[in-house]
């Protein structure tokens, strides 16, 4: 951003239009809006003395005066519409004055020569209508044989909207007045416009941007605009209230997109790549950082692809009030830059005026700093998963056809995943996600994971995915394309990473504000039908990282999760602790698989009041199923109460197919198939509450089959009076006895 004022004189030139006339040289009476001498129509002589060339009409088009090229230069004070069939040569400044209206149809190309003297400007009261389409954009470009940045000026719009540099300021380039009190001022429409090779410089501190908006009002439409290979900033807003949507800045030699001077517009879908300095530079005022109106904006769906030298965002010259959401960066070494000497910017950060949510640092450069701000408040950035402008680092779909120089790959090969999610985020199955730290879906956040998505975790206990109370996860796998959460190690093994944790608001018997064993998240409450989302066709692998011998992750942990949550077709594979565990709550679990867990296969406790159906457990180091009431108070209510049906446990196991412990609860189990076990139901002799419940008839197991038991087999080690709580009979268990059931086909592993 440059602050010096241009004092040059604008060109007032004759617009010379090469036109075809009839053979008797009668002037064409079509009005081009520019009068040359005493001419009443297009350039065809007039007082200039230029004679029109002989020409034959174009066959079949009905136009006897078709032109192939036209020079643009001078001033426009009335309506003029260009012709997309012509090539327009911008040979000097072209100023659309108060009352002037320039319409540029789709497919029109304007070719500029002349460095700083060649630019298009819209003065206050003038209007421009660049009516491109995705297939046929309006293009303003260089006329050089070998075009490069700074070949010509650029496009400048000046409006009557408020700024903080006064109501009669003078534009940095063009010496045009801008500013005022008309917030909804209308300077026209820029739609599907590409400006190329702009940024001609008067000196080191005064040069054109690709497109500059000086005090432009919200009545102006700015959508689908690209600056390509510009010598200064790509696009810059100097105050005003205009909004910018679907903006692209590519290979700018200063900042990608810049705003200052009390800009009060909003931005949505910005894709910035190749900025030499900052991706986005946002400031209040370079001369008075505290002046009002304060630069105030909401930005959403932003991508900055580095490298950059001054941060993805440079919050400078007092900053302002910025709210930014869904901010994706790739290949940067600094997230947010703030000068230590910028006290007004620091004060605004401390006041909470800079808030960035769902900011993702994908493939960061070595030595990444999320911010260089050293003040007390460091939480103005909330990390999460972002799609940015629509496709992460790759060009979004909305850039197709009208932009230039973008990487159009479907998606980057891999992206880092960590931080917090507070809004709606959807992953991309074409991207391999690397879970490098904790990812927390906070209250109000919603994480959607489409079928076929793979998340690879590194970092041991620091790497896990958690859904806090009020958050939701939607793992929408299919049998053919499950969602997979696995280890990123070259040779994966159990306990490589944490696991998946869900915390809900449903009742437990450990209180309504308990803290999860891992993740330190609150769970419990009174909302029985609480909804934490959907887990369907999900496989978690190599989980169970341990903090110590008594505190470690399970494959999937449900803390106080409500019955509104769907849990179906979920497998834990090669976990370092329990495969799947329910800590209270009311959620049901159907079509669950636990394979090769180093503790129990499936565990439930703390007043769980859900039901289970079709569980297939193999390779549990301890119990196939561990069911308890409460480890600290075995008699506390609500009592763990469940009905389980169609269950298979394939041994060996060391603590029984079922371990009824810590007071047990009220269990009804039907169609329970076991194979290769030495103990059916384990009950500790010292567990008096568990014994009392067996004696009261609260444990009932019917059609329990003991297939191929190992040596020393016992149906139960319970020694109390009641021994008939188990009814032996043949069954199919989870569907296919000891073999993997049909419903496991395609999405499970190791069966």
Query: What is the tally of beta strands?
Result: 56
Radius of gyration: 35 Å
Parts with pLDDT < 50 across at least 5 consecutive residues: 1-66
Overall pLDDT metric: 89
Distance between the ends: 63 Å
What is the overall number of helices? 2
Shape: elongated
Write the layout of secondary structure elements.
Blueprint: E1 69-76, E2 79-81, E3 87-96, E4 101-105, E5 109-112, E6 119-122, E7 127-131, E8 138-142, E9 155-158, E10 169-170, E11 177-178, E12 188-196, E13 201-203, E14 206-207, E15 211-214, E16 221-228, E17 235-238, E18 244-250, E19 257-260, E20 267-273, E21 280-283, E22 296-305, E23 313-316, E24 321-330, E25 334-337, H1 343-350, E26 354-362, E27 369-371, E28 381-383, E29 414-421, E30 424-426, E31 432-441, E32 446-450, E33 454-457, E34 465-467, E35 472-476, E36 483-487, E37 500-503, E38 514-515, E39 522-523, E40 533-541, E41 546-548, E42 551-552, E43 556-559, E44 566-573, E45 580-583, E46 589-595, E47 602-605, E48 612-618, E49 625-628, E50 641-650, E51 658-661, E52 666-675, E53 679-682, H2 688-695, E54 699-707, E55 714-716, E56 726-728
Parallel strand pairs: 1-3, 2-4, 3-5, 3-6, 4-7, 5-8, 6-9, 7-12, 8-12, 9-15, 12-16, 15-17, 16-18, 17-19, 18-20, 19-21, 20-22, 21-23, 22-24, 23-25, 24-26, 25-27, 26-28, 29-31, 30-32, 31-33, 31-34, 32-35, 33-36, 34-37, 35-40, 36-40, 37-43, 40-44, 43-45, 44-46, 45-47, 46-48, 47-49, 48-50, ...
Antiparallel strand pairs: 10-11, 13-14, 38-39, 41-42
């Amino acid at each position: 951003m440059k602050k010096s004022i241009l004092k040059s004189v604008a060109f007032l030139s004759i617009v010379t239009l090469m036109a075809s006339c009839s053979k008797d040289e009668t002037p064409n009476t079509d009005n081009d809006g520019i009068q040359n001498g005493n001419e009443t129509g297009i350039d065809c002589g007039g007082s200039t003395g230029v004679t029109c060339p002989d020409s034959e009409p174009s066959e079949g088009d009905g136009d006897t005066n078709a032109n192939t090229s036209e020079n643009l230069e001078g001033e426009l004070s009335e309506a003029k519409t260009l012709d997309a069939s012509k090539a327009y040569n911008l040979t000097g400044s072209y100023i659309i004055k108060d009352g002037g209206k320039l319409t540029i149809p789709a497919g029109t190309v304007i070719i500029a020569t002349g460095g700083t003297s060649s630019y298009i400007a819209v003065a206050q009261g003038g209007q421009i209508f660049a009516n491109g389409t995705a297939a046929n954009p309006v293009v303003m470009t260089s006329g050089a044989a070998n075009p490069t940045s700074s070949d010509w000026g650029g496009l400048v719009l000046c409006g009557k909207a408020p700024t903080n540099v006064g109501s009669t300021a003078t534009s940095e380039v063009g010496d045009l007045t801008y500013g005022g009190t008309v917030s909804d001022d209308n300077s026209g429409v820029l739609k599907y416009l590409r400006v190329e090779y702009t940024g001609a410089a008067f000196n080191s501190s005064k040069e054109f941007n690709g497109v500059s908006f000086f005090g432009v009002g919200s009545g102006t439409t700015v959508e689908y605009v690209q600056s390509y290979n510009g010598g200064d900033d790509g696009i810059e807003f100097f105050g005003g209230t205009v909004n910018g949507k679907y903006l692209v800045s590519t290979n700018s030699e200063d900042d990608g997109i810049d705003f200052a001077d009390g800009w009060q517009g909003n931005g949505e879908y910005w894709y910035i790549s190749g900025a030499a300095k900052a991706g986005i530079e946002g400031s209040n005022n370079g001369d008075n950082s505290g002046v009002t109106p304060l630069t105030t904006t909401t930005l959403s769906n932003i991508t900055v692809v580095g490298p950059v030298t001054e941060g993805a965002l440079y919050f400078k010259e007092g900053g302002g009030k910025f709210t930014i959401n869904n901010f994706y960066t790739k290949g940067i070494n600094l997230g947010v830059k703030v000068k230590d000497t910028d006290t007004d910017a620091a004060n605004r950060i401390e006041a909470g005026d800079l808030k960035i949510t769902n900011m993702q640092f994908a493939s960061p450069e070595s030595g990444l700093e999320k911010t260089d701000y050293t003040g007390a408040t460091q939480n103005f950035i909330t990390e999460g998963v972002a799609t940015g402008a629509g496709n992460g680092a790759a060009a979004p779909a909305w850039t197709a056809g009208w932009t230039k120089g973008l990487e159009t790959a479907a998606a980057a090969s891999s992206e880092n995943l960590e931080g917090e999610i507070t809004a709606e985020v959807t992953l991309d199955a074409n991207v391999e996600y690397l879970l490098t730290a904790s990812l927390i879906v906070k209250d109000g956040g919603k994480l959607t994971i489409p079928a076929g998505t793979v998340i690879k975790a590194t970092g041991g206990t620091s790497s896990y995915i958690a859904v806090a109370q009020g958050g939701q996860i939607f793992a929408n796998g299919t049998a053919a394309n499950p969602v997979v959460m696995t280890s990123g190690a070259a040779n994966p093994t159990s306990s490589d990473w944490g696991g998946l944790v869900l915390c809900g608001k449903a009742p437990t018997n450990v209180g309504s504000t308990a803290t999860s064993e891992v993740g330190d998240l609150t769970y419990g409450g009174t909302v029985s039908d609480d909804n934490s989302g959907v887990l369907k066709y999900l496989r978690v692998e190599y989980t169970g990282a341990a903090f110590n011998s008594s505190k470690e992750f399970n494959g999937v942990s449900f803390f106080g999760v409500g019955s509104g949550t769907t849990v179906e077709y979920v497998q834990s594979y090669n976990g370092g602790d329990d495969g799947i565990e329910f800590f209270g709550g009311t959620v049901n679990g159907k079509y669950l698989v636990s394979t090769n867990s180093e503790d129990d296969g499936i565990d439930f406790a703390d007043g769980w009041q859900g039901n289970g159906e079709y569980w297939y457990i193999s390779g549990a180091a301890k119990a196939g199923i561990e069911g308890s009431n409460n480890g600290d108070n075995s008699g506390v209510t609500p009592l763990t109460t469940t009905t389980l049906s169609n269950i298979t446990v394939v041994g060996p196991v060391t603590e029984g197919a079922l371990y009824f412990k810590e007071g047990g609860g009220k269990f009804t189990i039907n169609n329970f198939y076991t194979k290769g076990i030495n103990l059916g139901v384990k009950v500790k002799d010292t567990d008096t509450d568990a014994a009392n419940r067996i004696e009261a008839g609260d444990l009932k197991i019917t059609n329990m089959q003991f297939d191929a038991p190992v040596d020393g087999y016992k149906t139960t080690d319970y020694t109390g009076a009641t021994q008939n709580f188990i009814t032996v009979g043949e069954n199919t268990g989870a569907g296919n006895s000891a073999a993997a059931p049909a419903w496991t086909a395609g999405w499970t592993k190791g069966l």
